[in-house]
Write a structure and sequence with these properties.
The structure holds two protein chains of two kinds.
Chain A (H helix, E strand, L loop, with lengths): L19 H20 L2 H17 L11 H19 L16 H18 L4 H12 L4 H8 L3 H21 L1
Helix pairs in contact in A: 1-2, 1-3, 1-5, 2-3, 3-6, 5-7, 6-7
Chain B lengths: L3 H5 L6 H14 L12 H21 L1 H10 E4 L2 E6 L25 E2 L1 H7 L15 E2 L3 E5 L4 E8 L13 E7 L5 E5 L3 E6 L2 E11 L4 E13 L2 E8 L4 H9 L3
Parallel strand pairs in B: 2-8
Antiparallel strand pairs in B: 1-2, 3-5, 4-6, 5-6, 6-7, 7-12, 9-10, 10-11, 11-12
Helix pairs in contact in B: 3-4
The chains are: A mainly alpha, B alpha+beta.
């Protein structure tokens, strides 16, 4: 189901009185789906999401509203967390205490069937393509916001996404 | 292009995970549920004041530091620019080019001009003067949410022949309340100007994230007026004077 264009950002910063819950509710699904598409593993995505949220909220005083959007700033942290994960190759990054809720194998299997298929295909595209796919389809970011975050132009973002989706679609239909 | 499968496959956040993480963050970071401004209290304030005094003393005492600091950050009106040297920009991977028959993903859904003007929370007047050959497109990229409304209007010139592969329309982005302007620009490509007496900035070129160079042949005019951020982008064959004239015809 195609969502409507995502909100450009939350208005938040060191001089803004803001409650944590709305920020959390807004960012959690974006981050989680970004990591799902980026690493292809739901459990690991939960760990990386937890780590990003913790870093973002703890360091939010460093966010400068004059230099961009809060959502983009958090997504920048997410990309760094992802890069660190691949660099250090840690099997688990988040404190164990963060992940406590048990989930049945049947439940995971049912929910993950299609995602597992997609994750296998995502592993076959380039790192940059996967990064943009995760930002676009995982984090619901607009081409414009992705362009701002990655330093690409909007047209380049669109071109790379087109190629990546075309590749994925072809593989999706033949596997 | 059908990319619905990429949305359909997105896993939902497990409610148990969401609640577990929320509780953990709340318990491990005391004060997380309080407003941001009140968290660190007077200790942080004292530290910030001391740091600011030390920084001010340093900047005042050492002329070279003062000059570099002033040159590094550039304020134009309510906008902030970080001036950088071109040779410090990173070098990313090669540029992909759009082959014949390829259509980029996006742009996002659009609405027509009349509807965009009707929906926008403040009264918008579109430019009454446009460079010759350009025609207003009736497709407006519009975003509305609880934080901001933004609209991007475009003027196309079907007869424009550019010497490069780039072919840009003239576009006008308006965001309200504005996202503000704050970006890194090469120091020699930023120029101060005014739009109807309001401080404005002209930036020549755009950052090409694939080559690491500031070589996208565009010219941009940015200004902030009554909490609305305006950014006009045009091919670099457009003169600054024409861009300013177009912007001033909105008033």
């Amino acid at each position: 189901m195609r969502p409507t264009p995502s909100p450009p950002s939350l208005v938040v910063g060191p001089n803004t009185d803001v409650e944590f819950r709305p920020v959390y509710d807004e960012l959690l699904p974006k981050l989680y789906r970004f990591f799902c598409y980026r690493v292809g593993d739901r459990k690991l995505a939960e760990d990386l999401t937890a780590m990003t949220l913790e870093k973002a909220w703890r360091g939010r005083a460093n966010f400068n509203p004059g230099l961009g959007e809060f959502t983009n700033w958090v997504m920048g942290i997410a990309r760094k967390v992802n890069a660190d994960h691949h660099r250090t190759n840690h099997p688990r990054l988040a404190p164990d205490a963060l992940i406590q809720a048990p989930v049945s194998i049947e439940e995971i299997a049912e929910r993950d069937a299609e995602f597992a298929r997609l994750a296998a295909l995502l592993a076959q595209v380039s790192r940059r393509e996967r990064d943009l796919l995760a930002l676009k389809y995982g984090a619901d970011m607009s081409n414009r916001a992705i362009a701002e975050l990655t330093g690409l132009t909007e047209s380049n973002v669109g071109t790379i996404l087109h190629r990546a989706v075309t590749k994925l679609r072809a593989k999706w239909e033949t596997t | 292009m059908d990319d619905d499968f990429l949305y359909r496959c997105r896993p939902d956040v497990r409610p148990e995970f969401a609640e577990s993480l929320y509780k953990t963050l709340a318990s491990t970071q005391p004060g997380i549920l309080e407003p941001a401004r009140t968290r660190h209290g007077s200790r942080f304030l004292l530290f910030a004041i001391a740091l600011a005094l030390f920084g001010a003393a340093l900047v005042t005492a050492i002329p070279t530091v003062r000059a570099q600091t002033i040159e590094f950050i550039k304020h134009i009106g309510d906008m902030t620019f970080v001036l950088v040297d071109l040779n410090r920009l990173p070098t990313p991977p090669p540029v992909p080019t759009l082959a014949e028959g390829e259509t980029p993903v996006g742009p996002e859904p659009t609405i027509n001009v009349e509807r965009a003007l009707e929906l926008f929370p403040i009264k918008l007047t579109l430019p009454t003067w446009i460079p010759a050959g350009y025609v207003l497109s009736d497709q407006v990229f519009f975003e509305h949410n609880k934080y901001r409304d933004s609209a991007t209007f475009t003027w196309n010139n079907p007869r424009l022949v550019t010497p490069t592969a780039w072919n840009f329309p003239i576009s006008l982005y308006v965001g309200y309340p504005g996202p503000g302007v704050g970006e890194e620009v090469p120091r020699n490509l930023l120029q101060e100007t005014t739009v109807n007496g309001i401080p404005a900035a002209i930036v020549r070129g755009g950052m090409n994230g694939m080559t690491g160079k500031y070589d996208i042949p565009i010219i941009r005019l940015m200004w902030i007026d009554h909490d609305a951020t305006y950014e006009m982008t045009a091919p670099d064959s457009t003169s600054p004077e024409d861009l300013i004239r177009m912007a001033e015809s909105m008033y």
